[in-house]
Amino acid sequence: MKTIRGLFALIFAGFLTVSCDSPNDQAEVPSDSKAGKPILFASLSPVGGVLEKLTGDLADVQVLVGEGQDPHEFTPTTGQLASLGSAKAIFLSGMPFEIPLGERLKESGADIQVIDLSGGEGHDSHGEEDGEHVGCLHSHLWLSPLDLTTMVETAKEQLLKMFPDNEEKLLANIDAYLSELETLHEEIGSKMKPLEGKAFYTYHAAFDAFACAYDLDERPVEVEGKTPTPAELAKFLKDARETGANALIIQPQFDTKSAEDVAKELELKTVSIDPMERDPIDNIRKIAEAIKFSVGS
Question: Which phi and psi (to 5°) does residue 93 adopt?
Answer without folding.
Answer: -130, 5
